[in-house]
Design goal:
- The protein contains 19 helices and 27 strands.
- By secondary structure, it is α/β, with parallel strands linked by helices.
Length: 604
């Protein structure tokens, strides 16, 4: 969840590290620090708050060191203090760490570290252990230390008496590395290195990296040198910049048409869905009798759209599981179950562990991820990469809609392979899916109207979303978005459940956003809306109905383009995203970096 960057090369490291930390800010953090190594001396700067505060702290330091490491910390063990910030310095060792060391308390007792520790962190325990074991051989010290560690970790280490070298190792927690003209770089993710090169490799687990200005050597724990697979990213530094938008989230909302085109179009041949280029075997669809979808947060809501679609159109049972719950239960899956996991980053720890569990039951795993070479992608039997490009805002927008689009592709291919739908039906379905970007572009024109609605919502401590069928599923995502970036307490309810207790929450002027895009239950939802309006709610109706003018029904009406009910999800997604975005902006909040949240949850 934190950010790591290390650089050793032929130019000063300080600005490279600070710039890299700024590009990693979106991951979520509460403090930042860097350490520079030159002539056996360590210069250490740490500060709570933003990277900008760290940059100001370093402003008067004209250090020309060409080797250094930097870190943005999201507090787990110990409070938000300068002392708890990384890097940690213990004797000859300087270290940064992502992850959680589960047995750090036992290690403190066993190795008598209590009097040596100056912070409250599990990370400093690792630094102190390394210093104990270090006798001039860094590789040997690292091997001894990691044998003692339980939990997830990504470690970048410098030794005072070893100039211009960085050592690294990981278990579960992600890291990537690259060598370029300027030197060698290691980081939590691509945003920190994309300014230098598009080529990188994923650091293999339990392999020790030695980074110098000339090369990166990768060796396993037996000392065998290995050659990692070099990957190439398909976006550039502009993709990780705001491009004139006030916030990344708004930029990413407007990038959704292209993201969906890039995800769907390459997988359509002769009007039919095809996963041949992805290497996805039709056998996984042919032999599956049921589907389990596993994900967290927004990705889980995309999976719920897939469930609704597959069960209704194909009559195949689908179970959607919260990854953090799935991994601690005895799931009912077997070799006849297709497990689909969704994760934007491909590093979500609970989803990764759920994936591994599913495989132990004999289930084939198909992952939907946005990051090439990520851990979930590598651990899966098959991968369907979405092509959303970098998503920097913590609140997921374009990654969500491309996941939804991927579920539509899978549903259609599944129906074809199992002879549940005909090729003619599939072509009609895919034709409508290919029009989703146009639907989004049309819906984005509602921005000014949604701004006015947001100004009303910002005044309320609570808001409610209601809908039926797919609209209820979209309401769940809408409530999450509003909560996470505007801090308005929001809940979603199936509209038909209002009389079963929920309507007690409706008070004068409380915002109720009603999705009514499913034609077969449209009249039912309108009846539910009238009920809440009669009790004084401020009602926003989202529908395709051009005739709505009655103020007894709603205070505001957002009309989406007329289309088949099963494809309204793309228009509704944009509206719920913009409601959350403009409410947060109207409250003067940092839309991209909501409090207490991180972009990628890589620790349990």
């Amino acid at each position: 969840m934190c950010g790591i960057i290390g650089f050793t090369g032929n130019i000063p490291a300080k600005d490279i590290i600070l710039n890299g930390l700024e590009r990693l800010e979106y991951r979520g953090y509460d403090s930042a620090g860097l350490a520079l190594l030159e002539n056996g001396e360590v210069t250490l700067h740490k500060r709570t708050g933003k990277v900008e505060a760290l940059r100001n702290l370093c402003a008067s330091d004209d250090n020309s060191a060409t080797c250094g490491i930097g870190h943005t910390r999201w507090a787990t063990h110990g409070g938000v203090t300068d002392v708890n910030a990384h890097p940690h310095h213990a004797g000859n060792v300087v270290l940064i760490h992502n992850g959680i060391i589960e047995n750090y308390r036992q290690l403190i007792v066993e190795y008598g570290l209590a009097d040596k520790l100056v912070s409250e962190t599990d990370s400093e325990v690792v630094a102190q252990l390394l210093n104990i074991f270090y006798e001039g051989d860094p590789i040997a010290a690292i091997k001894k230390t990691i044998k003692l560690l339980s939990g997830a970790f990504a470690l970048c280490i410098m030794f005072k008496d070893i100039p211009d070298k960085i050592f690294a190792i990981r278990n579960v927690s992600p890291m990537i590395a690259t060598h370029c003209d300027q030197g060698s770089i290691i980081a939590s993710d691509l945003t920190a290195v994309i300014a230098f090169t598009k080529d990188y490799f994923v650091v293999p687990e339990y392999h020790i990296l030695t980074l110098t200005k000339d090369e990166i050597v990768v060796e396993d724990l037996k000392g065998h040198v290995t050659k990692p697979e070099i990957l190439t990213v398909n976006w550039d530094i502009e993709g990780a910049q705001k491009g004139g938008y006030p916030f990344f989230m708004l930029k990413e909302i407007f990038e959704q048409p292209d993201a969906i085109r890039n995800t769907v179009s390459p997988r359509v041949e002769d009007g039919l869905p095809s996963f041949e280029e992805d290497g996805i075997d039709d056998a996984i669809f042919e032999h599956c009798k049921r589907i389990t979808i596993v994900a967290c947060g927004t990705a889980m809501h995309a999976g719920m759209v897939g469930k609704q679609l597959i069960e209704e159109k194909l009559r195949i049972p689908v179970q959607v599981e919260i990854a953090s719950e799935f991994r601690y239960k005895n799931p009912i899956i077997d070799e006849n179950t297709l497990t689909i996991v969704l994760s934007q980053s491909g590093e979500t720890i609970d989803t990764l562990e759920a994936l591994k569990l599913a495989k132990t039951f004999g289930s084939k795993v198909l992952s939907i991820v946005n990051v090439k070479g990520s851990t979930i992608a590598r651990e899966s039997d098959y991968v369907l990469y979405t092509h959303a490009g970098p998503e920097i805002a913590v609140a997921s927008t374009k990654a969500y809609t491309v996941q939804v689009a991927a579920m539509y592709l899978i549903a259609c291919r599944l129906g074809l392979v199992k002879n549940i739908i005909t090729e003619t039906m599939a072509r009609q379905f895919i034709s409508k899916l290919l029009s989703a970007p146009n639907i989004i572009e049309e819906t984005l024109k509602q921005a000014e109207e949604i701004k006015r609605i947001a100004n009303q919502i910002k005044l309320s401590p609570d808001a409610f979303y209601i809908g039926r069928g797919l609209d209820y599923v979209m309401g769940l995502e809408a409530a999450l978005k509003l909560k996470e970036i505007s801090y308005v307490h929001a809940e979603a309810y199936a509209a038909g459940e209002l009389k079963h207790g929920t309507i007690a929450l409706i008070t004068e002027n409380v915002p109720v956003i009603a999705f009514a895009t499913q034609e077969k239950v449209y009249d039912k939802v309108i009846s539910n809306i009238v009920e809440v309006k009669a009790r004084g709610a401020y009602v926003v109706l989202v529908s395709m109905d051009e005739s709505v003018t009655d103020t007894k029904v709603c205070d505001c009406h957002i009309r989406i383009p007329r289309l088949d009910s099963e494809f309204t999800t793309f228009a509704t997604a944009v509206i719920l995203q913009m409601i959350a975005y403009y409410t947060s902006e109207a409250k003067g909040l940092d839309v991209d970096k909501p409090r207490n949240l991180a972009k990628s949850v890589t620790v349990e």
